[in-house]
Design a protein that fits this description.
Layout lengths: L4 E6 L2 H11 L3 E8 L2 E7 L8 E6 L3 H12 L5 E4 L3 H10 L3 E9 L2 E7 L5 E6 L1
Parallel strand pairs: 1-4, 5-8
Antiparallel strand pairs: 2-3, 3-4, 6-7, 7-8
Length: 127
């Protein structure tokens, strides 16, 4: 068994697609109309046949509440791995990404957290 798709709730699929592709550099893999929403997935440019990230609309009240509460508590919705966190931090800041935590060493990991402008905090980590 393997993970093929993981999802993240977003407030606006178009804005999320723009942020995740233009700011973060992910590549759109699927964009299929499904009723009033779309099945939009992205992949890492380095592993285009790897796990897909689904930009899931937070239309359901439970999804909105979950997203709102973890954001308010400062809990990242997901985590992305990077090779060089300082380089990635600088690259994203140059693109206007707002960080809530700059690169911080925690044991053998270094982490940073940013706001995806779609209702989520996202953590990047360097092992």
């Amino acid at each position: 068994m393997k993970i093929i798709v993981t999802s993240i709730f977003v407030q606006d699929q178009d804005r999320a697609l723009e942020f995740y592709s233009e700011k973060l550099g992910f590549i759109k893999k699927e964009d299929i109309p499904v009723g009033e929403f779309r099945w939009i997935t992205l992949v890492s440019p380095d592993v285009q046949d790897g796990t897909e990230l689904l930009l899931e609309p937070n239309a359901h009240p439970a999804a909105k509440e979950y997203q709102k509460k973890i954001f308010a508590e400062g809990i990242p919705a997901t985590m992305f791995g990077v090779e060089d966190i300082r380089k990635e931090y600088d690259r994203l800041r140059e693109k206007g990404v707002q960080f809530t935590m700059e690169p911080t060493k925690m044991g053998e990991l270094t982490i940073a957290v940013f706001d995806d402008t779609c209702g989520n905090l996202i953590q990047i980590v360097q092992k």
